[in-house]
Amino acid sequence: MLSSYKELEQYIVEDFEEFLDEGLSLSQVTDKLLVEYHRGTVNSKVEKLVVYLTIALLCLDKGYLREDIRMNWIL
Known about the structure:
By secondary structure, the chain is mainly alpha-helical.
């Protein structure tokens, strides 16, 4: 169990940067993050919000946002 939602956010940010460094596209990074954090999005509405909102903000910073992310970050 994560000690805080801030910790969850930090893990997502680190994974996002790592996946980009591996040469994945933003769409591929999004897919990989959704797989990595799937359990949290199923078990908790708050964790789902943290996961989707963090991914959305990271992608928007790069000028990109997939429709499925846009639709799911609002519970």
